[in-house]
Write a structure and sequence with these properties.
Helix content is 52%, strand content 13%. The chain contains 19 helices and 13 strands. The strands form 3 sheets. Strands 7-6-5-8-9-11-10 form a 7-stranded mixed beta sheet, sandwiched between helices. Strands 1-2-3-4 form a 4-stranded antiparallel beta sheet. A hairpin with a 2-residue loop joins β10 and β11.
Length: 503
């Protein structure tokens, strides 16, 4: 094998296999609802497989009397097919058994083992002599590293932004099969069936991938989320994939972001189908007159749609990290007007980064409608350092609404940052000033409240009046004190300890 071909194979191999690591992290992160250990687990198993594969090459492939190029071609072919099949196999295992997706780590490991044997064989096939071993191996290794960098960047920042994961995986597999073709030796003038077989199998495998790709990945996100229960669930109405994540919309209007509940496309207070939508309306109880509101976590847009129609509200700035939600909002009549409402500014950015870059901005009310405290990255929006940043953006008398998602540590951190707390369910309204909680004023607001011209509650209807009375009967300050008591023995979340993610 020529030196240039070996360098090309090293580059393309690194690109293909690192792209698959990106895909695997996506699929296992979705299955685990973005548990923080997922990336480390996938990477650790992948690297262990590479190491064992390289060790196997020393004892199995290199001493073999068979052609190095032939073994190399078979390794590329088998490892690429296993890489490609890891995702549908993971989905299949999940559909058979609760948490069965973990069995998908087995084909992942085997694929890494096979790939690990490729580099030592490339060194042998390239004919690098002993006196030039340092220079020759360095060139091959450099090509592999550059390919790995190119593959991960291309897959993570481009392919997953323009293609569904299933198609991106198929495209990477086709490049991997091209590597197998390059690796196999030419059959010669009088080829035997043994020499022709691999050259026939590679295009057959490519054709099989193209033909079966849709079937193999059919409803994969539904199966990963519901596992064996997927058979009693209807297909998702919408699946939006991009480099920022996966958004799924169920037939009931429930939205899931990367495998975790993310709200509903509904703003009604009665009949209430959107759990905790009342928190958007309670904005006007916790703060007497919020004019400027910041929402960190736009998601479905339901909360933002409610708040922008509140009395006296001049502007709502909503920060969302995943632009796919804009596509979802545009398709949903109940919230689509957010995209054209002059009082709404939607910014696609990381919430913490935006606050850090816009130090001069001040708000009366800041909603931290963040995700579950145990998910990867949750520390960035719960830590002591982040709440200090939030405080810097509040006007005098301003209120921050913190979604603790039930975490005592999140409550303890909020208590340290703010002297005054009120609570409803898992939400803490926190301020540096005492909150008025004028329930008579709140009653008048709800009586006149309209969202897109539709009355929120008709208080002449006893059932709807009872809905309001329920919120008026709550003792929000007492609930705040209960949270203080619960948080007494809890630790403070910091950027360094990442307490809710890694206990």
């Amino acid at each position: 094998m020529g030196r240039m071909r070996a360098l090309l194979l090293s580059f393309l191999g690194g690109a293909v296999f690192l792209s698959y690591e990106i895909y695997w992290v996506r699929i296992f992160s979705f299955a685990t609802s973005s548990r923080p250990y997922t990336f480390g687990l996938v990477l650790g198993i992948y690297l262990t497989g590479l190491a064992l594969g390289a060790l196997a090459a020393r004892f199995l492939y290199i001493p073999s009397r068979s052609s190095s190029r032939r073994i190399l071609g078979w390794l590329y072919l088998a490892s690429v097919l296993l890489c490609y099949l890891t995702i549908p196999l993971t989905v299949w295992f999940a559909a058979l058994k609760f948490y069965g997706y973990w069995y998908g780590l087995i084909p992942l490991f085997l694929a890494a083992c096979l790939f690990g044997g490729i580099f030592p064989l490339l060194v042998k096939a390239a004919g690098i002599r002993e006196e030039e071993a340092g220079h020759g191996v360095a060139l091959l290794s450099g090509a592999n590293i550059l390919g790995s960098l190119a593959g991960s960047l291309t897959a993570g920042f481009y392919l997953m932004d323009v293609l569904p994961l299933a198609r991106a995986s198929a495209l990477s597999a086709l490049f991997g099969l091209a590597c197998a073709l390059l690796a196999f030796p030419l059959p010669g003038r009088k080829p035997s069936f043994r020499k022709l077989l691999p050259l026939l199998l590679v295009p057959a495998a490519a054709g099989g991938i193209l033909a079966a790709n849709g079937l193999l990945h059919n409803e994969m996100y539904k199966k990963l989320m519901y596992m064996p229960r997927h058979v009693v669930k209807r297909p998702f109405q919408e699946v939006i994939e991009n480099k920022s994540g996966v958004i799924c919309l169920s037939d009931e209007g429930v939205v899931f972001g990367d495998g975790a509940y993310d709200g509903r496309l509904n703003t009604d207070l009665y009949p209430k189908t959107n759990a905790e939508i009342e928190m958007a309306y309670l904005t006007f109880l916790f703060h007497p007159e919020p004019r400027r509101i910041l929402v960190v976590g736009l998601a479905t847009g339901a909360w933002t749609q409610v708040m922008v129609h509140g009395p006296g509200v001049e502007s709502v700035t909503a920060i969302e990290i995943n632009p796919g939600y804009l596509e979802l909002i545009e398709q949903s009549p109940e919230v689509s007007s957010l995209l054209t409402n002059p009082k709404v500014e939607i910014v696609i950015d990381d919430g913490r980064r935006w606050l850090d870059r816009n130090r001069e901005e001040r708000f009366d009310y800041i909603v931290l409608n963040t995700t579950f405290h145990w998910r990867s990255g949750a520390t960035n929006l719960l830590s002591r350092e982040f709440l200090a940043l939030v405080k810097d953006h509040l006007n005098p008398g301003g209120v921050a609404l913190i979604n603790t998602t039930g975490s005592r540590e999140a409550a303890a951190t909020a208590e340290e940052a703010f002297p005054h707390l009120a609570a409803y369910g898992i939400y803490l309204a926190a301020s540096e000033s005492p909150m008025e909680l004028d329930k008579e004023r709140f009653t008048r607001i709800i009586d006149e409240y309209r969202v897109e011209g539709k009355d929120v509650l008709d208080l002449s209807d006893p059932e709807q009046a009872e809905e309001l009375d329920y919120y008026l009967r709550q003792n929000y300050r007492r609930e705040g004190e209960r949270w203080r008591q619960r948080a007494r023995e809890a630790g403070i979340i910091t950027d360094d300890n990442m307490l809710t993610e890694f206990r």
